Amino acid sequence: MKTIKDSVHDHIDVVGVARDLLDTPAVQRLRHITQLGTARLVYPSANHTRFEHSLGVYHLACEALANLGIEGVQAERVRAAAILHDVGHSPYSHTIEDLIHRRTGKYHDDVHDLLVGSEVGDVLRAHDLDPDTVAGLIAGDGELGQVVSGELDVDRMDYLVRDAHHTGVPYGTIDHQRLVRELTFLDGELVLAEGNVQTAESLLVARALMNPTVYNHHVTRISKSMLQRASERLLDAPDIDAEELRRMDDHDLLVALRANPNTAEFARCLSDRDLYKRAVWAEMADVPDDVIDADHETVRDHEADIAESAGVDPDSVILDVPGRPRMTESSSRVIVNGEVRPLARQSTLVRALQRVQRDQWRLGVYAPAEETERVGLAAERVLGLATDGALVSDVRTGVRTTLDDFE
Q: Which residues contact 200 (CB under 8 A, 6 or more apart)?
């Protein structure tokens, strides 16, 4: 057994297969991948890593298994999946995941190849565990896969609390101990026991508050977009491919960007926090549907058209179009009066939060500070935005509110 002091869960006892997996290169690599990617450029203390998050997920999985009464080989498989659930992450966590998927067809939870043919696979087999089965649990397969990857999984229970702790933002605080304690299986589905509607709602409230404050803060999105652009250009070079990029850590990627003449300036900007600024920050109602639903190539075409219209270098325009808002946790199921009900049907609050997500959505167009006005006006023309000249619409509508407004 190994006992590790954690900033969120205090002491974590790592035993069995998890203890042996802890020292494999695949798991140790997670020490060098930041949990929140470029969000540390907004919150300086947000330097926590996928390694400590994996320990937290393992800890909560152990508690969930004990409360569910699951023991033996089944439990050991889940514990292995919990400690390994993030080994497929590319550098800077989710930041370049879509780029990796476009080039390889793999997301971070597709880890069959990483588990089967590595030291991780050797450790699993030494404990009589099938690597393919563990990889399936990481992807959320089967009944027990819901514990690691599902609407009520221990993954989000840990990251919300951990991200709030390390950013200093209090909105992600949830009663994760109660959530873990109240999990139960009913007809093969992981649900929350009777009397826990508010417990489930707390997850969604936390996400709804953390999204604009941390995960989709405009500086986070600008720096993320710049890193995506640089990484895509890096893959255009003949000496690196997406599989190699996928297995880098944060430091490897930054070094590679600095070494390539076509990406060195982006690397400097990210290192010095010399970032692009918002030329457009538009609400969903002001953006045509065909722009919201545009694929990657169409977005690139729009960028080129905006740059040409503004008379600036193509590198001076980045168009950032988030996906349509969705709240997967709203399909979480809770037992109410002996009946299993989807949370969205039971909770008026959840339906309100779904509207909030739409209100928080923003399309971003970013450019160097001295070019934002030209780029913004060009983007309005090219994209057909209905902003009426109000190109930057902030989500913090009450920022100038005074106490007198509440009298």
A: 152, 192, 329, 332, 334, 343, 347
Contacts of 206 (CB under 8 A, 6+ apart): 160, 164, 171, 172, 173, 174
Q: What is the pLDDT of residues 41-68, one digit of tens each?
A: 999 999 999 999 999 999 999 999 999 9
pLDDT of residue 403: 33
The position carrying tokens 């209905």 is 386
Entry pTM:
0.93
- From residue 289, give the alpha-carbon distance in Å to each of 92, 285, 294, 306, 317: 30, 9, 8, 18, 21
Tokens of 193: 């026991």
C-alpha to C-alpha distance for 66 and 298, rounded to whole angstroms: 50
> How far, in Å, are 290, 373, 382, 392 from residue 389 at the CA level?
21, 11, 14, 9
Rounded to whole angstroms, how far apart are CA atoms 240 and 390? 42
pLDDT of residue 351: 82
- Averaged pLDDT, 294-318: 97
